[in-house]
Amino acid sequence: MREPPHEEFLGLAFSRLTLADAVGTILDRPAAGYAYVVTPNAPHVVTVHREPEVLLPIYRGAWLSLCDSQVVRRLAQLRGLSLPLVTGSDLVAALLEQQNTPAPRGGRKRILVFGPDEAIEAALQRRYPRADIAVLGGPKGLARSAPLRADAARACLAREWDILLLCVGCPAQELIADQLRQQGCRRGVALCVGASIDFIVGRSVRAPRIFSTLGIEWAFRLALEPRRLWRRYLIEAPQILRIFFRQTSARL
User: Fold this and answer.
1) How do beta strands 110-115 and 132-137 pair?
2) Contacts of 214 (CB under 8 A, 6+ apart)
3) How far apart are the C-alpha atoms of 31 and 189, rounded to whole Å?
4) How far apart are CA 149 and CA 118, in angstroms?
5) Is the Cβ–Cβ distance between 120 and 197 less than 8 Å?
């Protein structure tokens, strides 16, 4: 299936679809043939450029690549590009809300969530009683272990799903999405959407809308979890500026 139009930026391709368009495109996609969706933010872009031989082909091989970062979006504006903001959390919430209607667009989809502990399944079913949702827990250490990622892909392939939500963080979720392709997955769409389910069920707190509007949602998350996130947001993510200026200079 031909992919929707994308813009080239920072070495990646970003979709021009809005949130509503992305939801409709995913739900209307024919069941036959496997595809996956990535949601790059600033730390993801930096991670991809740190391991371009491995990760760049995976990101560029995505059927949809949706901009999940006000920082990336505003840097794109400096280049004259307009990228709609479609966060993984908003995308998943909109998909689940659609599936919770009496007559969902594209028909009722079987949704498998991979990553969170399986106790979260009951919370999702209470919130979306009409949706067909199952949860498959994932082990720790997926980012560092290729055998674990291969096992994870096999476990997902053993289940029936139309939409697979991979919620194990970058780059593990993208590597598992690619593992599914390598292992011969022939149907369905996998979404690499990080902590989206934790936000939806209230295990993690989303920043107030004003933080997102100003492009500083990262500061809110850093204040909540400084020990876990300080390196990501203070050391790694700012490297996106080096990538941006290097590529801008190369264009001059």
Assistant:
1) parallel
2) 70
3) 8
4) 18
5) yes
* Identity of residue 7: E
HSE-CB at 168 with a 13 A cutoff on CA atoms is 29
- DSSP summary character for residue 143: G
> Over the stretch 76-104, which tens digit does the pLDDT of each residue have?
999 999 999 999 999 999 999 999 999 99
d(CA 113, CA 50): 28
pLDDT at 64 over 90: yes
Confidence of residue 226 (pLDDT cuts 50, 70, 90): confident
Q: Find out whether 189 and 36 touch, Cβ atoms under 8 Å.
A: yes
Neighbours of 209 (CB within 10 A): 9
**Residue 130 pLDDT class (50, 70, 90 cuts):** very high
HSE of 232, CA atoms in CB hemisphere, 13 A: 18
Name the pairing type of β-strands 35-38 and 64-65.
Answer: parallel
Residue of 239, 190, 205, 1 whose CA lies nearest to 92: 190
Alpha carbon 238 to its chain centroid, in Å, reads: 20
CB within 8 A of 98, min separation 6: which ones? 23, 27, 104, 105
CA distances for 166 relative to 137, 142, 144, 223, angstroms: 10, 12, 16, 26
